[in-house]
Design a protein that fits this description.
The chain contains 4 helices and no strands. It has about 70 residues and is mainly alpha-helical. The protein has 2 domains: about 35 residues, no CATH class; about 35 residues, no CATH class.
């Protein structure tokens, strides 16, 4: 599960010179259209799983999300 920012960064790193930014924007738009990329749903799922599985408090989860989650 990834956020839009993470997907964009990964694609930019991989396709920076070969494909171009227009292709990356098209892919991100298509992922949104198909419902595969939804930052709000990501945040909800991330928060729920962190609280249930790792027994973290709401404040800690909010701090992780606001700091920009980059943990797989």
């Amino acid at each position: 599960m990834r956020t839009e920012a993470i997907c964009d960064a990964l694609m930019t790193a991989r396709w920076n010179r070969r494909r171009g930014e227009a292709v990356i924007d098209t892919v991100v738009a298509r992922l949104h259209e198909y419902g595969y990329l939804d930052d709000a749903r990501f945040a909800e799922t991330y928060a729920r799983l962190r609280q249930e599985n790792e027994k973290l408090g709401q404040r800690r989860v909010q701090q992780d999300l606001s700091a920009g989650v980059d943990r797989n």
